[in-house]
Amino acid sequence: MERDIIRERTIEGLRAATARGRVGGRPKGLSKAAKLEAKSCKRLFEQDKHSIEQICAIVDVSRSTFYKYLHCMKVKLRTAKTP
Question: Which of 1, 16, 47, 59 is most buried (CB neighbours < 10 A)?
Answer without folding.
Answer: 59
